[in-house]
Amino acid sequence: MFPITSAALFLYISAFFITSIQTVEPCSVPLFNGNDLSGWHEIGGGKWSVEKGSIVGETGNGTDGWLTTDRVYSNFILDLKFKAEDRGNSGIQFRSHIIDGEMYGYQVECDPTSWELTGGVYENRKRGWLAKPKRSCEHNVKQNAWNSIRIKVIDKHIQTYLNGVLMVDLYDDNATRGAIALQVHSGVLPQVKIRWKDILIRELDHGPSWEPLFNGKTLAGWKEYGREKWYVEDGWIVGKAVTDKYGYLGTERQFSNFEICMTFLAEGTGNSGCFFRSFLEGVDITGVQAEIDPTPGNHTGGLYESSHDGRGWIAQPDELGNKVMGGVGTQNVLRFVTKGNRMVTYVNGWKTVDVIDDKQKNTNGVIALQLHSGGRAVMRWKDIYVNSLD
User: Fold this and answer.
1) Whole-prediction pTM value?
2) 3-state class of 93 per DSSP?
3) CATH number assigned to the domain comprising residue 304
């Protein structure tokens, strides 16, 4: 046996740990515990139960029914198995939203009367079919047996697999996060009876090109404008109005083309926003803001231009877009993209505004969190990440 030197042992151990670190991936976790419907809630008219380690969805009062996750998800890989025991239509919603009791969002089709559509992607209550499976995939489903489905979603990229075969590969940016839900389709005949089991999800990060703008501990990289109070508490940036004037917390860096994502929470009723491609002189700002108003229905996610000759509202959410934000005391997620003359905003994953604007005053500038004048705003922000698109 050859003697092992200290240097050789060090190199061996280092190589082992480096290899281990490089191969670590997020782990899949169960969305269904096999015993009860903890972590899920029912919407609409289906009947839901647990039998022999599987979720059973059946026709109820004839209206659409969903079993919906309590949590929402953005980027992920979802694996599950299903078996249809009757001829009624079903599906799997993802990045979806319930508004006034109706389900909106992406759905992967599971249709035992038309198996050639199973695995296709349909947008419920909006644009309809986005992508149907390739003709060569029509007969990939197993009848009267368990089938596996994988849904892989990373930013705009959506892929579905049926029994290991790629069915749909598309890019779409109409939603960035939302609930996952199992569906029982409306109608009394043919009835729906479908089983689901082995439901596992692996959540994925934004990706290596995203970087944090807030370190969770200090205001390093940010600059205060005005006399309002800014500080860090429990991993949040807190902005508190102490006068009746405007206040801003702006980045020291400037940005041009980028996308940004942040979580916000309003503790008061005062208006707020996030400016971009902006310039500040004291508390006088020139730029466009994505609106944040803690009163539901007041255009959160809309785009507003401020300056001495600003245009005011550039675009506002429609009626549905005005209903996706929670009110005072709830966490919400704002995301927006600006590239060239296109600006897109999302509130809690719902696309609220998508405009082409050739009249912007600036092509770059700082990002700035706002406290509106009036002295009523108490705002929190965290998980602020930016992705350069230059």
Assistant:
1) 0.88
2) strand
3) 2.60.120.560
